[in-house]
């Protein structure tokens, strides 16, 4: 007979890892599943060297360092962790259990918490003819090692948190950094904008890439004013494009979940429209939600507590961490 877990968590990014830990704190048996071959989600896959600024207790912490600490925390209560498997379908077996069908196996669980980040994702590409020829050379959509840009002339394109964060991070090691954005205003935190103004980064707005030149690698980039006639040509060693990602919920779209703008709709208890299925982190949405890792951590505790209450109506919801840690000491 198949083992029945209390809670199955889909997605082993930072929020999924913390959800795993907190579910263990509530003495739930946990199964964590992710399609990637390693834990960490986008943090590990796309920008392990990027600094994260919205985690309480850390003025800044590298993404991969955060993942490693979250993983140590997640395995405290010995959860089952299955990597390299995608969940394709979910079937309700009865009023208390679900069957999850993956690319390799079938699993049974009493509750599901979806923490799959943005779902499947692909970077938004630079829409310039033949620019694909430079991918894997010196056209980058994510950064694995900041040292690769030492003493480089770097052009960064984009207007969100990632573009500004990378500009600030590379300012200290690159020969020079130019940041262009096609609008006058950046979509980032005010403190980051203040740091940007005080840095050595050259900022050009509203500008966009017009043409790129080079044989094996990009050697020069022509940038043009969006609503004007000004153009200039920059000598570059590296070009970084941070236009965000095209996301896809994949098989989740066929589960019967309420979807709003490519995210799973939840209420204040992190409940989806399907009883027994909850969600936390960037993949879910409700009115006024800021998409931050810190937000996802709080949502994780709500989702776990509601799942626990559904399985055991006598369970307490408002549990203080000091009470729970008494149990950790005895494990």
Quick rundown:
With 331 residues, the chain is α/β, with parallel strands linked by helices. It is built from seven helices and 22 strands.
Task: Summarize the topology.
Layout: E1 4-10, H1 14-25, E2 30-34, H2 41-45, E3 51-52, E4 61-62, H3 63-74, E5 80-83, E6 87-92, E7 98-102, E8 106-114, E9 120-123, E10 139-140, E11 153-157, H4 161-171, E12 176-180, H5 190-198, E13 202-204, E14 207-213, E15 220-225, E16 231-235, E17 238-241, E18 245-248, E19 259-260, E20 263-265, E21 277-279, E22 284-285, H6 293-311, H7 321-329
Parallel strand pairs: 1-2, 1-8, 2-5, 8-21, 10-17, 11-12, 11-17, 12-13, 20-22
Antiparallel strand pairs: 3-4, 6-7, 7-8, 9-18, 14-15, 15-16, 19-20
How would you describe this structure to a colleague?
With 331 residues, the chain is an alpha/beta fold. The protein has two domains: 4-121 and 245-329, FAD/NAD(P)-binding domain, CATH 3.50.50; 125-241, 3-Layer(bba) Sandwich (FAD/NAD(P)-binding domain). The chain is built from seven helices and 22 strands. It has helices at 14-25, 41-45, 63-74, 161-171, 190-198, 293-311, 321-329; strands at 4-10, 30-34, 51-52, 61-62, 80-83, 87-92, 98-102, 106-114, 120-123, 139-140, 153-157, 176-180, 202-204, 207-213, 220-225, 231-235, 238-241, 245-248, 259-260, 263-265, 277-279, 284-285. The strands form six sheets. Strands 1, 2, 5, 6, 7, 8 and 21 form a seven-stranded mixed beta sheet that branches. It has a five-stranded parallel beta sheet with strand order 10-17-11-12-13, with helices on one face. The radius of gyration is 22 Å and the shape is elongated. It starts with a strand and ends with a helix.
